[in-house]
Every structure is written in C-alpha cells, then in structure tokens.
Amino acid sequence: MIPHRISWINTPVLIEAIERYEQGRLPRSLTLWLQTVLELEGPPSGPLLPGG
C-alpha cells in the first residue's frame, strides 16, 4: 500500500483524539491513525499535550 501524505488536520479534532488516546478511550482504528500521524511507537509514557 502506498503511504498517504497528510496535508491538513483539524486542530480541535487532533487535540480531542490526543486526549482520548491518553485516557485509553480511542477506538483501535483511530489509535493507529494517531500513532501514525504523531509517529508514536506505542502507548504514551507521559502526557502528549502541555499541561496534560
């Protein structure tokens, strides 16, 4: 499969996804998407957002 370049992401949507990811409330498909977008290799070891 050819990787797609992400050219635009809605900031409020991304922040909500990050918050849910940190809380473990993100569906698997969106977890994989977020890990790809942020180039994460696994579960967060700490907050991804400042002040989180």
Task: Describe the secondary structure blueprint for this structure.
Blueprint: H1 11-23, H2 28-37
Describe the structure.
By secondary structure, the protein is mostly helical. The chain has helices spanning 11-23, 28-37. The longest helix is centred in the N-terminal third of the chain and has 13 residues, at 11-23. It is globular, with a radius of gyration of 11 Å.
Condensed summary:
It is built from 2 helices and no strands. It has 52 residues and is an all-alpha fold.
Attribute tags:
52 residues; globular; 0% strand; mainly alpha
Give the amount of beta strand, in percent: under 5%
- Supply Rg: 11 Å
Order of helices and strands: HH
What is the tally of helical segments?
2
The end-to-end span amounts to 35 Å
Residue stretches low in confidence (pLDDT < 50, at least 5 long) are none
Reported for the largest beta sheet, the result is: none
Silhouette: globular
The assigned structural class equals: mainly alpha
Mean pLDDT: 83
